[in-house]
Design brief:
By secondary structure, the chain is α+β, with helices and mostly antiparallel strands. Helices cover 33% and strands 17% of the residues. A 4-stranded antiparallel β-sheet has the order 4-3-6-7. Helix 2 links the parallel strand 1 and strand 2. Helix 1 runs antiparallel to helix 5. This is Phytocyanin domain-containing protein.
């Protein structure tokens, strides 16, 4: 029985070491954050969302992903130039998305201008200027905003709750790392 227990303990330690190695590798590779444009409001003109305030409350970095969620019968997403953004001109888009659930990777620093190309929507405020910080700026994503209206903050999500954590601005690497560390601790216990 002593030999079997020693073999099981060695295997558990190897598994824990493999998990820690995976954390180290993933931490350097998967550090992009995912943001839903407009948070729970989504991409719309209903309720007059303030996309300028939404974008200003976040710190975007290269490789982050912005997700536009909307009813595709009434909206779309167009990447446009600064001049077309200011003039709400949808005639020469750089790119257009129209699935109703569009993920856009922010591959460059600087400003990324998006508008809705449906007539009147941009003029009504359905446009957003997302500024991606240069690499010399802070390297971590902005924390999720505090709840408004004096509400009590909800507890942090469990490390395995990746989709919700990602939309709150947590990085993929942090979520995976927490999960793997929990696994390693359980194996070694």
């Amino acid at each position: 029985m002593g030999g079997g227990a020693a073999t099981a303990t060695a295997a558990a330690r190897r598994a824990a070491l493999a998990a820690l190695l995976a954390v180290a590798v993933l931490a350097g590779v998967a550090s992009a954050a995912v943001y839903e444009v407009g948070d729970k409001t989504g991409w719309t003109v209903m309720g007059n969302p303030n996309y300028a305030a939404w974008a200003a409350s976040k710190t975007f970095h290269k490789k982050d992903v912005v997700v536009f969620t909307y009813n595709k019968q009434y909206h779309n997403v167009m990447a446009v130039s600064k001049a077309d953004y200011k003039n709400c001109d949808a005639n020469k888009p750089i790119a257009t998305w129209s699935t109703g659930n569009d993920s856009v990777v922010l591959n460059t620093t600087g400003h990324h201008y998006f508008i809705c190309g449906f007539t009147g929507h941009c003029a009504a405020g359905q446009k957003v200027d997302i500024r991606v910080a240069s690499s010399s700026a802070a390297s971590s994503p902005a924390p999720a905003p505090a709840p408004s209206g004096g509400a009590t903050a909800a507890p942090s999500p469990h490390p395995n709750a990746a989709p919700k954590a990602l939309l709150a601005g947590r990085s993929v690497a942090a979520t995976v790392a927490a999960s793997l560390l929990s696994l390693a601790a359980a194996v070694l216990a």
